[in-house]
Design brief:
Helix content is about 45%, strand content about 0%. By secondary structure, it is an all-alpha fold. The radius of gyration is 16 Å and the shape is globular.
Length: about 160
């Protein structure tokens, strides 16, 4: 199947041509979203779109990094929108740390540590999503469970910081 004709997730835009799914179940019926029916599906999909994004590749351009930075800022804001009315100190703390790391990451100001701070911000955002899931008695989000729907052979930075 060529890239243009590949069905895409309506939430995250990921290609849905994988056939392995968990335990070889085959592609999703009707090319559906792999996050459908999961709690906080939009937050999970947004996280994974950033997690598996081009900015984490060795050949990432400055534009890829800037796009990811902006996408990460929107993602942190979306997580913040899921918190009002809930008393979740762990999620609030992780979200605050994500926002702090995001501010420190500004690639327009200093590219030296931008990637490390962006990776830290994404990690804290992931923790905030997991805090929300834990509060709802749900298992944590595992991005690698969705990796086959992304153009990702490996995830750079994973063990480097």
């Amino acid at each position: 199947m060529n890239d243009a004709a590949a069905p895409r997730c309506p939430r995250c835009g990921a290609k849905l041509e994988g056939t392995s799914r968990k335990h070889g179940e085959g592609p999703l019926p009707g090319g559906g979203c792999p996050y459908a029916g999961l709690p906080y599906a939009d937050l999970r999909a947004a996280h994974d779109a950033i997690y598996f994004g081009r900015w984490r590749r060795m050949d990432a351009s400055p534009l890829d990094i800037l796009r990811a930075y902006r996408q990460l800022g929107r993602h942190i804001g979306s997580i913040g929108e899921a918190l009002p009315g809930r008393v979740l100190p762990a999620a609030s703390g992780d979200l605050a740390r994500a926002a702090d790391a995001h501010r420190a990451a500004d690639p327009a100001a200093d590219a030296g540590d931008a990637l490390r701070f962006m990776d830290n911000a994404l990690s804290y955002a992931h923790r905030a999503i997991d805090d929300l899931l834990r509060e709802d008695k749900e298992p944590p989000h595992r991005p690698m469970d969705f990796s086959e729907w992304y153009d990702a052979v490996e995830v750079p930075f994973r063990d480097e910081w």
